[in-house]
Write a structure and sequence with these properties.
The protein is α+β, with helices and mostly antiparallel strands. It has three domains: about 5-100, Double Stranded RNA Binding Domain (2-Layer Sandwich); about 105-205, Tyrosine recombinase, N-terminal domain (DNA polymerase, domain 1, Orthogonal Bundle), CATH 1.10.150; about 220-395, Intergrase catalytic core (hpI Integrase, Chain A, Orthogonal Bundle), CATH 1.10.443.10. About 45% of the residues lie in helices and about 10% in strands. It has 19 helices and seven strands. It has a four-stranded antiparallel beta sheet with strand order 1-2-3-4. The chain has a three-stranded antiparallel beta sheet with strand order 5-6-7. Helix 6 crosses helix 10.
Length: about 400
């Protein structure tokens, strides 16, 4: 028989109800045990969710219970207790968890909910609001609209995208982005688990045709050659355009940038919230190529408040047409803003950086309010690597071998 002290020690080794409500709100990234197999999982982004580790049919399983925003500590404990009971009885706790909430919510239901709650209140363009839902009604709903959103997999996404993948590049880009938005919301709201099936879907599709010259965005495979031609062009407009490309920034953000925003030693350009479309401060990691451009214009600075790329009248910024004129002189039928699409296409098709890192590089606003509430990082360190890889590719140093993200 075990002694009293041994039994007491074993009980101490597996305490229950360790967490408190304040701790649930404040604990940092990691898995934090509450006892009885219940864990609080805090992602690097700050997102918080519950998970239960238990044995199901002789195998250890981790079962997602939902985000902290929708499930309190007490509710998580009750749900974990109920699911452990199902597992001990030889049942399927995952099926038990999913049977009510998941079977009732289809992909179409989820898409319409996202449209009503996220797109309509936040979009500034009425045409965009209508088109957002119309594209899904046309291309996605006939194929997978009636599928439970928790059951949507990569095969479903492939069936939606494959018919338009090579023929309608811009349409398929929008459809893919909207599928991703809906499925991200479903995961955040606790309606599905795991990786978004939109991620990596291009690996199962045919190679897209390169865009021809009449498109506004330059095909990313052509960029190194065009970059060499831009570098060979004299003038402040050429330098500013190169900086736009290397930072994936908007034209206005570059044209109005001042030396007070730049830390050359740290290699960081910090744009104030009032200059950003999303209304949030944005840090841009500066690659060696971007810093080299700033070194060329540094002698023209007359103070910390002076422009990085001044016009001939130093106090006046360059016009957007000045940058566009560089492309026009070279015969490129693309826009300056289209260079952001070129960067995004390169990142999407040639790297494995996570979606949120790409979005952070482009300073895109998070339209999903739940996701936005938990996104407490700008993924700066990962973007340092990505922007170095982008500069290496764009300038031709790494045009053949594109560095993949971690």
């Amino acid at each position: 028989m075990k002694g009293v002290d041994t039994v007491a020690n074993e009980r101490k080794a597996h305490p229950v109800n360790k967490l408190t409500a304040p701790a649930v709100r404040k604990l940092g990234a990691g898995m934090h045990a509450d006892g009885g197999g219940l864990y609080l999982v805090v992602d690097d982004t700050g997102a918080r969710r519950w998970a239960l580790r238990t044995t199901v049919h002789g195998r250890r399983r981790e079962i997602g219970l939902g985000p902290v925003s929708l499930l309190s500590l007490g509710e998580a404990r009750e749900q974990a207790k109920a699911l452990r009971k199902v597992a001990r009885a030889g049942g399927d706790p995952i099926a038990e968890r999913d049977k009510d909430k998941r079977a009732s919510l289809t992909f179409e239901d989820a898409a319409r909910k996202v449209h009503a709650e996220q797109i309509v209140p936040n979009a500034k363009n009425g045409k965009h609001v209508a088109q957002w839902l119309t594209t899904l009604e046309t291309y996605a709903f006939p194929t997978m609209g009636s599928r439970p959103v928790h059951a949507v997999d990569q095969a479903d996404v492939l069936r939606v995208l494959a018919p338009i993948w090579t023929e309608k590049a811009e349409t398929v880009r929008r459809v893919r982005q909207r599928l991703r938005t809906v499925l991200d919301w479903a995961r955040t709201a606790g309606h599905r688990d795991g990786v978004n099936p939109v991620e990596g879907v291009e690996r199962g599709l045919a190679r897209q045709k390169d865009r021809t010259a009449h498109h506004k965005a330059l095909p990313w495979r052509e960029l190194p050659g065009w970059m060499q031609r831009i570098e060979a062009t004299d003038g402040m407009g050429s330098l500013a355009l190169q900086f736009v490309i290397l930072t994936a920034a908007r034209s206005g953000e570059v044209r109005l940038a001042t030396w007070a925003e730049v830390d050359m030693e740290a290699g960081v350009w910090t744009i104030a919230a009032d200059r950003m479309k999303a209304g949030r401060e944005h840090r841009v990691p500066l690659s060696a190529a971007a810093l080299a451009i700033l070194a060329k214009v540094r002698p023209l600075a007359v103070g910390s408040g002076s422009l990085l790329f001044p016009s001939k009248r130093a106090a006046k910024p360059l016009s957007d047409m000045t940058l566009a004129a560089v492309l026009k002189r070279l015969g490129a039928s693309v826009t300056v803003h289209g260079m952001r699409s070129t960067f995004r296409d390169w990142a999407e098709e040639s790297t494995s950086y996570p979606h949120e890192v790409k979005e952070a590089a482009l300073a895109h606003a998070v339209k999903n309010k739940v996701e936005a509430a938990y996104r407490r990082t700008d993924h700066f360190e990962k973007r340092v690597d990505m922007m170095d890889a982008w500069a290496s590719y764009a300038t031709g140093a790494g045009a053949k071998v594109v560095r993949l993200g971690a």
